[in-house]
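Lab notebook, bench 4. Still working through the backlog of constructs that have no structural model yet. Next entry is a single chain of 299 residues. Request: give me the structure tokens for it.
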Amino acid sequence: MSEPLLVLVGPSASGKSDLALKLCERVGGEVVSADSVQIYRRFDIGSAKPSAAERARVPHHLIDELEPLDAADAARFVQLADAKIADIVARGKRPIVCGGTFLWVRALCFGLAPMPPADEAIRARHRAEAEQLGRAALHARLAQLDPAAFARLNPNDLVRVSRALEVYELTGKSLSSLQAEHGFRTARHAVRLLAIAHERAELHQRIARRVQAMFEQGWLDEVRGLLRDGYGQARALRSVGYKQVAEALESGAPLDLPALSEKVIQATRQFVRHQLTWLREQPVEWLPPGQLDELCRTL
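Model written out:
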């Protein structure tokens, strides 16, 4: 591919998907999603998945690719995305990667640090310990074993905390040190990272409007259906937003929709702060809203 791979990143609710759609229509492109929730079938409303009409306008790849209980990680995403990108280029189109799962984006652009494979026995033990002692107790172990991961990870993020502990148990080295040794310095693709810049107040308003729209579109019924059909352990159901809605529905307490909406909004804002921290360390070109024409002139 002679041109750099265009990768639209940016925080949740910043308008990545809409920009990707318009940009593809201008340059003859196709979207390759880098979203760890949109990749699953049935996770539609809460992931802000492009509509059928939008997907009819522009081909979208790696959306509805997997069943809800299928495993998906950065390595599998890279394998799938590489195949889609090669196919799009072979057909004379331009791939445009779009998504907010930045570990996946980083893996696609710079590869992954060598890591041991998952050990289900260790993970099961961690889940049992978290159930007995609390997730914070597992997180506290990282303070000595992997201080960088301890500072970076949310104590409630059991999946990532468990993985950091698992890597140390299997290798005797911290996850952070293995990543630092790798350095993510060798590019797998020539890339151009793009994001839409919003003032904080505007981004917060966009988040609130999107959350309200999701509930109006039937998000509660979507999550009820997932729980009813046995997908309560799906990893995507632990993502921001879905996690809060599922917990509210499973609690048995009377549903307070305004309080739940506010809880999802606050969780999304916290997640966005983590996204912006990652983005500040990357060579991202920040675009003012509505600059599609100017962007196209640089392609």
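Notes after review: The beta strands are 5-8, 29-33, 60-61, 94-98, 191-196, 284-287. The mean pLDDT is 92. Flag for follow-up if needed.
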